[in-house]
Write a structure and sequence with these properties.
three-stranded mixed β-sheet; 12 strands; disordered N terminus; Potassium Channel Kv1.1, Chain A; alpha+beta; about 290 residues
Length: about 290
């Protein structure tokens, strides 16, 4: 291992004219990445190209361990890095963070990537992914240019109104499936089982199910650190949420079209000490199963 300045590097086989090593360690919003120097400078005039081609190591920010630090979204940076490797964009199915990823692409000055993430606009100057197109004739008789409201056909009017309110393709194509959320909690009951039992907060809410569904529902509130590279069509039981409120998880599931179909809970009891007269500590584990048809 070689050191350049105080930066932490893993080899020194890079370009002889560059002050940077071949392999560079980055800290992006708390997420650690290892990549080659040539990957970071793959797109000329991008922000990373400017940082690692036009500047010296001493000019760049570092964390406490010497890694080059970028104060950006660590989760989304993996897609930025994937794009830089072969200049190709591959996203999971039902990826809910396109708008935020586009913002990251704009920040890193990756113009081609930003264009790919922009909503497609049709000839009628409307966003094709969000608004279903009506027949031009129907638009005309509803009061558009060249249309007349004096000779409305009620049948055509109803048909036009129905097509105007058609659900977007993205909603129609949502996959069915199950997601299970669970949590482990504990509370203490005194010797006389008094009403004011001492509850402890929920430490962690776990998420089990298909990876693509979990990412669609919870987005950037999903912590994938325990299972970071799970393919979209595979299942996982190692995700958990970045917040501790069950109601917030239920709201996200409801907004995504899921409904609760089952619930189960188990509990155990133990004494805080060997004295049976002391407070009892109850520990419970509860799971809620949600389904989208």
């Amino acid at each position: 291992m070689a050191l350049v300045g105080s930066a932490r590097v893993l080899s020194n086989g890079g370009d002889a004219d560059s002050p940077f090593p071949e392999i560079i360690e980055l800290n992006v919003g708390g997420q650690v990445y290892l990549t080659r120097h040539k990957t970071l400078i793959a797109v000329p005039d991008s922000l990373l190209w400017q940082m690692f081609n036009q500047k010296t190591p001493k000019e760049l920010s570092r964390d406490s361990k010497g890694r080059y630090f970028l104060d950006r979204d660590g989760f989304l940076f993996r897609y930025i890095l994937d794009y830089l490797r072969d200049l190709n964009l591959v996203l999971p199915d039902y990826f809910p963070e396109k708008s935020r990823l586009k913002r990251e692409a704009d920040f890193f000055q990756l113009q081609d990537l930003s264009k790919r993430l922009s909503p497609k606009v049709s000839k009628e100057n409307s966003i094709s992914e969000e608004i279903s197109q009506s027949d031009p004739e129907e638009v005309g008789f509803l009061g558009g240019a060249g249309g007349s409201t004096a000779s409305l056909d009620p049948t055509r009017f109803v048909s036009a109104m129905t097509s105007t309110h058609t659900r977007s393709p993205s909603l129609e194509s949502r996959k069915s499936g199950y997601i299970t959320v669970g949590y482990r909690g504990s509370y203490t009951i005194g010797r006389d089982a008094q009403a004011d039992a001492k509850f402890r907060r929920v430490a962690r809410i776990t998420v089990c199910g298909k990876t693509s569904l979990a990412k669609e529902v919870f987005g950037d509130t999903l912590n994938e650190s325990r299972d970071p590279d799970r393919p979209p069509e595979r299942y996982t039981s190692r995700y958990y949420l970045k917040f501790n409120f069950l109601e917030q998880a239920f709201e996200k599931l409801s907004e995504a079209g899921f409904r609760m179909v089952a619930c189960s809970s188990t509990g155990t009891c133990a004494y805080a000490s060997n004295d049976p007269s002391e407070d009892k500590i109850w520990t419970s584990y509860t799971e809620y199963v949600f389904c989208r048809d």
